[in-house]
Amino acid sequence: MSGWAERAAATLLPLSRAITLGAALREWAYTGRFFDLEARDGTCELCGQQDLRYHFEIENPGTTSSLLVGSECIKRFEITGVDEQGQHLDADATGKLVDRHRRGLVEDARKQRVMTALLKLGQKVPNFDAWNFIDFVDDKGAFTPSQVAMIFGGWDPLAWNIGRQTGRCGCAGIATCDSFAP
Fold first, then answer.
1. Contact call for residues 44 and 9 (beta carbons, < 8 A)
2. What's the rounded Cα separation, in Å, for the pair 106 and 129?
3. CB atoms near residue 180 (< 10 Å)
4. Which of 39, 65, 158, 178 is 20 to 30 A (C-alpha) from 104?
C-alpha cells in the first residue's frame, strides 16, 4: 500500500464496518456539504494533506461518522455521493460535483475579496459609494471600464480611448501603449 493509502486506512477502518480499505471506501459518500476555511490552514482528515483552504464532508451512513477532506481525496479514492436532488452518483459524477462546488467556493472567495476592497476604498475616498459598486458587480459579475477607471484613481474615463483600438496591440487604454491618449 502507498503512503496515502496507509494513512487513509488508518483513518477509515476504525470509522467503518469493513476490514479492508477498498470495502471501507465503498461505505463512505460525499454529503454535498463544503466549507471555505478562508485561509490555507485546513488538513484533510482522510490523507493528512495540509494547507487546505476548502473542506468537503464525507460520511459513513452505517456508522454516522464523518470526515472533512480535500476535494482530491474524494476523486482519488473514488468516493460516491448524492446530488442536490438526492440522486445517488457514481464516483465520476461525484468528482464532477465536487469540482463544481470547489469552483463555486473559489468564485465566492473572489467576490468577497472584491467587496472587502471596495468597502475599504469607500472608507478612504470621499463620495465613493462602495455599496453601489458592490450591487453592480454582484448583479452583472464585472465592472464597466468607466467603473474600473474610477476605482483606480478617479480618472476621467472619457480621457481614455476606451472602446477604441488605436494601438498596434489593440489594448485600448493602457498607459504604456500607443492606445493611451490622455
1. no
2. 26
3. 16
4. 65
Helix (H) or strand (E) holding 6: helix 3-12
CA angle 171, 173, 177 (to 5 degrees): 65
pTM of the model: 0.72
Helix axis angle for 130-140 and 91-124, nearest 10°, is: 160
Number of H-type helices and E-type strands within the chain:
6, 5
Q: How far apart are CA 27 and CA 80, in angstroms?
A: 9
Residue 168 to residue 177: CA distance in whole angstroms = 8
Cα separation, 144 vs 157, whole angstroms: 10
Please count the residues of the chain: 182
User: Distance between CA 123 and CA 117 in Å, rounded?
Assistant: 10
CB 36 within 8 A of CB 53: yes
Instruction: Report the C-alpha gap between 26 and 86 in whole angstroms.
Output: 18
| Angle CA 52–58–62, to nearest 5 | 155
How do residues 126-182 score in pLDDT, each as one tens digit?
777 888 888 888 888 788 877 877 777 655 545 444 444 444 444 444 444 443 343
Is residue 137 within a helix (H) or strand (E), and if so which, with residue range?
helix 130-140
Query: Strand 65-69 and strand 80-82: pairing?
Result: unpaired
